[in-house]
């Protein structure tokens, strides 16, 4: 989902309205005046999570920072609870598009977690993924790939080769290779991902369908149109079974298949598939715009 908060003004964290909002949060909990600092820190953290779920990022950030300040004063800098809060603050900054602040908080979180958990831990893998996400967003694909690869390595070491989280990591690293136009490597990793997915989820699952489509994309970029077509059709079969004829994801695959036919010089077939896609999209548009037929 897209968020319209990318130009959000971080100065407002310290504004008067925010301090009254914070006061309101503690008042809305019974007996909060009698509570000790850790309890109040918990109240702010919980409120921050609730605001984040509601896409109220300014308020979420305010609550997390307040919770962090209280915790730093009571348990010191090097506690896992501090690292967890810094991670959550980093996530909010990532969503609102403040990449510099996101990196700063992820870095702080990583330093503490490395001291307490060591290098080989799923939490460290998650953090490396977050760094990858930030670098991907600022188009530093080499650095993104570095972090995604570190995350994959840790997940393989800690969870074993056949865990679904490892499949997810293969997927992320493969997509990073696609971004760098290294299609053979991407295809190999998407294939590893789909093998694990089939073991864990069975043949007929949307994740498997997604992986087939991605392998198809890699084949297409390599100019192997026959293989691309095969993978798109495998993906389509699953999507039709699970989502039905009129889903927009099905339309997307019809378009992909249409483009392959175009590249192979079969314009008639291409048109047929693009028209199938268009019919679904127009149908969806009609559902979402009840005044469509009035115009």
Describe the structure.
The model is unreliable at 1-17 and 291-295 (pLDDT under 50). The protein has helices spanning 16-27, 37-53, 57-75, 80-96, 99-117, 122-137, 141-159, 164-179, 183-201, 206-221, 225-243, 248-263, 267-288. The two termini are 29 Å apart. By secondary structure, it is an all-alpha fold.
Tally of helical segments: 13
| SSE succession | HHHHHHHHHHHHH
Number of strands: 0
Query: How does the major sheet shape up?
Result: none
Name the assembly state.
single chain
The portion of residues forming beta strands comes to under 5%
Distance between the termini: 29 Å
Mean pLDDT: 89
**Overall radius of gyration:** 24 Å
Structural class by helix and strand composition: mainly alpha
- What helical percentage do the residues reach? over 70%
Parts with pLDDT < 50 across at least 5 consecutive residues: 1-17, 291-295
Principal-axes geometry comes out as elongated
